[in-house]
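Tokens as discussed.
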């Protein structure tokens, strides 16, 4: 989700550089007024929320101002195109191309003044977030880790009237500006892959606000609605060849295209006190109880992704499609799905409503789309956070039901093996993981598991189970 454009991709993409650049003169389209502010301008935002907004029947009323995270690059490239970009829908049978115009302002995330100004504007009704799972800085207990160094740093910046550097800190400052402006309620719509993501976003934002200004935390509680969503669209990182394909097919230069599978899904639950676009026109679904849909997606899709990311790389594979074609990986996925399925209950307690067999079959087809080069290394990042959502709940539920949970445990074991050999191991807790990997035998397993879930780490039988499963996929050196 944090995919950002490689600079100069178009310049390297081929000879057709005399083609006109995509912008609103080349493709005339009015700019809708800003009513949505987005944090986390990356490929996934553009293939998903911005794409849904573009297709809403009332799209002319709903412009998005999108802010990048750590780097300005994606905003600079998109601003040169007046916010326009091409979505390449990549099916087994070929590509289709569409220009999306819902982003009307693309801004460097470091421009916190502009963020505060827009969130304080009465016209702004929504703040959407794709800031990555790890950015909520949740401890293993599900609450904000107030001791995380960047949280501590942001709190001292806030206290000194400085500009915070994390998305959470920036949002808290901007909400303080909305409170001061008397601009009233709005909805924060979390679009990161976390269970109960609205509650997670609430706890993180209120946790940070409260550590700075208790009055602000109370105001947020009373005025800001935190909407939970389940988001789905496989969106691999773009390549130079993708940029060249857009040039060749569309006859313009676009340095910010996005490639996505044809499938898209968005389930939302919560209140929108200042309104929202008619996302249902593009297929979004609004439900009272989101948990069954969230779990189905997080466990079956994202769980399989993480399993393939670690097992697949240990087996020498690079992409999801390659890993799935390996019988050992496929078998591990199927066994994990069996365990997950046994613990999924559908809307109103009716599992049949979730259509799990159809969902599993569709996932196999989506993952096997060999035209989508979805890199395992991209999925492998931030595993300590992702496993808490993808493996731990299934393992806990299996053990509570008196079963071993070996398939869920295998995902954790594969992550442990990967953490010891990965050439580039990216994780918010990478230092703790490296320290644990210096230990030997059972102590190492216990220390690594403690990073993911301290309760499981306290269970000797689980530690033994995971230790036995380590090495299942070999211990090849993993390179990127
Ligand atoms: C992936 C997701 O990188 C990851 O962790 O599992 O980004 C996944 O591709 C999306 O959730 C699909 O909707």
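Sequence:
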């Amino acid at each position: 989700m944090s995919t950002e454009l490689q600079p100069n991709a178009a310049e390297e993409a081929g000879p057709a550089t005399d083609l006109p650049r995509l912008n609103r003169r080349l493709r005339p389209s009015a700019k809708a007024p800003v009513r949505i502010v987005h944090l986390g301008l990356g490929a996934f935002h553009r293939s998903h929320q911005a794409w849904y907004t573009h297709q809403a029947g009332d799209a002319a009323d709903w412009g998005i101002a999108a802010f990048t995270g750590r780097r300005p690059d994606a905003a600079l490239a998109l601003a040169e195109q007046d916010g326009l970009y091409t979505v390449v829908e990549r099916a087994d049978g070929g590509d289709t191309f569409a220009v999306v115009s819902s982003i009307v302002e693309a801004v460097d995330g470091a421009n916190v003044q502009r963020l505060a100004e827009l969130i304080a504007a009465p016209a702004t009704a929504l703040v959407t977030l794709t800031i990555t799972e790890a950015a909520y800085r949740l401890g293993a207990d599900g609450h904000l880790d107030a001791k995380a160094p960047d949280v501590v740093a942001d709190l001292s910046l806030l206290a000194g009237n400085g500009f915070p550097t994390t998305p959470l800190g920036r949002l808290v400052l901007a909400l303080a500006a909305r409170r001061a402006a008397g601009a009233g309620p709005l909805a924060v719509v979390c679009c990161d892959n976390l269970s109960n993501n609205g509650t997670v976003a609430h706890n993180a934002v209120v946790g940070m606000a409260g550590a700075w200004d208790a009055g602000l935390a109370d105001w947020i509680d009373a005025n800001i609605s935190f909407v939970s969503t389940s988001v789905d669209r496989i969106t691999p990182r773009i390549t130079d060849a993708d940029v060249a394909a857009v040039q060749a097919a569309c006859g313009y230069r676009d340095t910010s295209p996005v490639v996505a599978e044809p499938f898209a899904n968005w389930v939302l639950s919560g209140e929108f006190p200042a309104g929202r676009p008619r996302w249902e026109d593009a297929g979004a679904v609004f439900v009272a109880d989101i948990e069954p849909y969230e779990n189905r997606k997080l466990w079956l899709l994202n769980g399989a992704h993480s399993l393939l990311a670690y097992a697949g790389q240990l087996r020498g594979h690079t992409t999801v499609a390659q890993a799935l074609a390996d019988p050992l990986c496929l078998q591990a996925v199927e066994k994990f799905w069996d365990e997950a399925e046994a613990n999924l209950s559908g809307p109103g307690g009716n599992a049949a409503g979730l259509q799990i067999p159809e969902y599993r079959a569709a996932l196999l087809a989506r993952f096997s789309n060999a035209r989508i080069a979805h890199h395992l290394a991209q999925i492998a990042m931030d595993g300590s956070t992702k496993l808490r959502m993808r493996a731990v709940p299934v393992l806990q539920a299996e053990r509570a039901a008196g079963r071993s949970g070996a398939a869920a445990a295998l995902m954790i074991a594969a992550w442990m093996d990967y953490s010891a050999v990965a050439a580039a191991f990216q994780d918010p807790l990478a230092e703790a993981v490296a320290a644990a990997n210096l230990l030997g035998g059972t102590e190492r397993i216990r220390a690594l598991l403690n990073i993911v879930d301290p309760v499981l780490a306290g269970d000797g039988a689980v530690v033994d189970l995971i230790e036995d499963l380590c090495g299942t996929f070999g211990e090849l050196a993993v390179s990127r």
